[in-house]
Each structure stands twice: as structure tokens, then as C-alpha cells.
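Sample intake sheet
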Amino acid sequence: MDAQSRGRTDGTDPADQWVLNPHTGDYELRLDHSGPRPAAGADVAPGRRSGSPTGDPRDGSGRTSASRTESRVPRQRGRNGRAQRAPETAGAPVGRRKRKPSKSRRKKALLWTGGVMAFVVVAGSTGAYALYQKFNGNLDTIDVGDAGSKSVASSGPLNILIIGTDKRTGKGNEGYGDKGSTGHADTNILFHVSADRTNATAMSIPRDLMTDIPDCETKKPDGSAEVIPGTENARFNVSLGQEGRDPGCTMRTVKEITGISVDHFMMVDFNAVKELSTAVGGVKVCLAKPVKDPDSHLDLPAGVSTVKGEQALAFVRTRKSFGNQSDLDRIKIQQQFLGSMIRQMKSDDTLTSASKLYKLADTATKALTVDSGIGSVKKLTDLAKVLGEVDTKNITFVTMPVIDNPAEPEPITVVVAPTKGEQLFSMMRDDISLTEVKKKEKQQEKAAKDKQAALLEGPRAEAADVRVDVLNGGGIAGAAGATVTWLQNEQGVLKSTNKANAPAKISRTTLEYAPNQADQARKLAELMGLPATAMKQGTTDAEGLQAMVLTLGADFKGAGVPVTGPAKAPDDIQRASADKAECAK
């Protein structure tokens, strides 16, 4: 953007008018030469002229810069040597920034949507209304209907789907990706923020994952709704773009695979990588060996390099130069890049530079397409504050556990690893952090045992008196029939009935029962190893021959196999921490 489009003709960047006073730790908006000057060494370029970011000499109160100057009261020194403010008169100073967060606070993560947090810092002062409007106008939004599930302010865990598309937009991107692509889900990360906001898990989802894509409702330009039919056994990346599918379809597909409801999405394209990496002044990456890749055009020596623009994009697109040259190895490279970008965004070099913050906020809001639930700067600011509570050392990058597709003689696609995949999904559903998983596992296991013991206290019915209907809401074909056979032939539960498939798939096995069936529920829980979390007691008594309802979920492993309570992390899951730099091999 040029100076005139910002309302200035002298080439002044409005971000440069925010200057740091080293004595107070405050950013101050310098709008004219007559106001008090920062002390020597303050972060202000010589020769800056006055003016508002919009070029209008009036601020949000309608007063001119001259009237603000007259009412501005400089800070004074108290006896303890600290800067103090003199008593304020009517029309107290405008444009005064809040005190910078403490150093420990500034060490919180900004995520790679750090430009949103940059807005918090840049626009957190009086007189920033024009910037607010500008950033708000940068955003593109998509209504995904009920694919999203909650507001940012809601309590509980928060799940955000980050989508990087292969759409060719922006100058110089004509040679990248699929020439005719409307934008497929090329890079995908499910970012899970814990309910207590102390940790986060960022799970990468391979684009070549074979899965079922469910029906999804999309909104057409005229506001009408259209249901896009689902597709069985398709690549994950066509959950976006193909047949007119929008990001809401990708969100529904993630839930179909993991049982995790996605609250919001953020989508970027090739251009965003180039522009964001440039806005932060470059991103440090490390290579174990020199790379000169003719396909991605990455050309870097061994060791640490700082990349931005075209080289940043080349780094995250490189596949054949690392590991076994698969998409899974490219995912590791992308995780390394994102971790480094997070560290750069929360560094003092970025957070104390008003110019960098302005450019980062402007670039990020231009680059982002988001769901309407977070489709304003105000809502994104709320989200940034939530994400800012998570320390980088507690952000763990993982890749969805997968295996080669057994249906292909020479596999080029993958499928979810049956056991390890469900273990990881269960951990995320249970809001268990990978950063302190062992400690939390023990706490959860003890709590589950205590709850299980309390649940099973009380009389139990005889197996022959247990009456239950069994439905299959999990992923194992014929599970309801197999369970009924096992119950009748091996456990003596003769009044069990196979009710075939449940109306919808569920992630957790549940047993619904009435208060006067509690003795039957205790017996069935004992026989099947059901956790306390599976038990759902109703409020009204059962009548006549009414049966309990057992719905088998994705956590059901087979007839006679106890349904486990607390989730455990797979033993050899690939993971990396956002606060540690690693060299690509």
C-alpha cells in the first residue's frame, strides 16, 4: 500500500508514529512537533512529520492535534525516580498506549496468525479507529453454517483448523501448485487449545490421507444453501474446492475422521507464506545439509539461514530434498518453519517495533480467510488473546498417525493408523496435553478409577436380567452383531438385541439407562469394561420391557475388549515443540 492510500503524501508510515519511551515502557503516538519529545534513545526516526494514520488531524473525539497538544501532560519524576503522571485535566492525553506486558507475558506464543496479535498492540490505543477499520476491511469471510460450534469466548477447549491451499494467487505464484485448482486443502493443521489455555497440540493432517468426505451444506453467493454430496474413499485434500466444497466441508471431514468438533478455520494461500515471512523480517531455518532443489527452487547452505518471500515458500514446498521424499517429510519441514515463525513473532525484535507490528497486522489480515464466527478484527483480537496465553514450550506439533494404504499395490496414499490414530484423537478429545502427558495420564487414570469405583458401588443385576439394545456408531463393521453374540454366548446376557447401525457415528461408547435400570447398567459396565464417562443415566424410570441402549463408538475395539477410560499417547508418535529449533535432514 502506498502513502496516499493511507491518507498521507509525505511517505510517512503511520506505524512509525508509535514510538517507545524507554523511561515509561509505553508506546506513544506522536502526532505533531509541539508535543513532548521522547528522551534520547527513544525509538523514533528523525524528521517524522505529524498527522493521524488517516491523514485527518482530528482523532476519534473530534479534537484537532493542536487541542490535544495543549492538553497533553508530560510525565514527571517522583521521589523514587520513576516516571509519574501529573494530575490530568479535562481532555486528558489521547493516543497514550497501555504499558507493555511484562517480559514473561511477552514470551507467550502468537501462533502463525501473529499478525492478529500485532493488531492488539498497534490498535490498542485511543485514536486507532482508522486502523481498526482498515484491518477489518482486509479480511475475507465464509459462512460455514453449523460446521463451527462455538464463539472464542466460550469455555472449554478450542479447535481451529488451519488450511493452506494450493490456489495460485498473488504475483509470481503462477508456477506453483495445480494450475486449474480452485484451492484444495494442501496443508492442514488442527490446532487444539486446552480448556485452561496452558497448552496446545497442532496436529498435521496429510493431504494424501484416504477418507470418507461427508455431505456438507454450503452457502451460495445469493445466500441460498446447497448440499454437496459426500464422497467415499477420497483424498483429504479434495474436501476443499472439489465440487464446490468450502472450508466447512473440510471441517466436517476432520470431525468425521477424529470425532473432534472444529470451532473455526483460518485459510491462507501461497502468497501468505511469502508476505508473512517478509513482514516479520524473515524466518530462521536450519538444514543438516546444503540443498539446491530444482523443483521448489530452494537454494540454501547447510546450517542456519533466514528465509523470506520466495525462499520461504520454497522451503515449505520442498519435498524431494528431505527424508524419504514423501509428503510426510514435507510436513515435518512445515512444522519446523511454523515453530520458527512463532518464535520470531513473539521475539522482542518484533514486539518492540511498531513498524513491524503494523506491517504484520496488515499482512496477516489481508492474507486470512476465516469463518464468519471470527470474521472481524474484534473477534480475531479476542482469539489472539486466547492464543497468546499459551507458552511456546507447551505447543506441540504432531502428525496424524498413518500407515500406507493397504488397498494400493504401490502405495502413494495413506490411511489412519487404526490404534495409534484413535489414541491421539482420544487424547485431544479428552484435552490431554502432549507436553505433560505422563503426569496428566496418571492424574486422569486415578480420577477415572475413583469415578469407576463409585459408579459400580451398589447392587448389580444378574446377567440374565440385563436387557439392552446394541447399536453400532463406531468404525468397525458388524460390531453390534458381534457384541450381541459375545454377550449372549459368553456372558449370559440373553436379552441383548442387535439394532444394527446408529443414526450417526459417535466418538465415545455410551450406555443410556433409566434410574430403575441402574443395577443392570452396573452389571453391563462390569462385563464390558465401560468407563464411568460412558454411563448416561436418564431422569425418568423405564416402563415394561424397555431396554437400555448401548451405542458403540469409535473407541470400541471389539467384542470382549474393555473400552478404555483415560487416553494414552502412542509410544512412538512423531512430535516437535514450538520452542525448539531443529535442523531439516
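Comment: The first strand starts at residue 18 and ends at 21. Confidence is low (pLDDT under 50) at residues 1-20, 25-29, 31-127.
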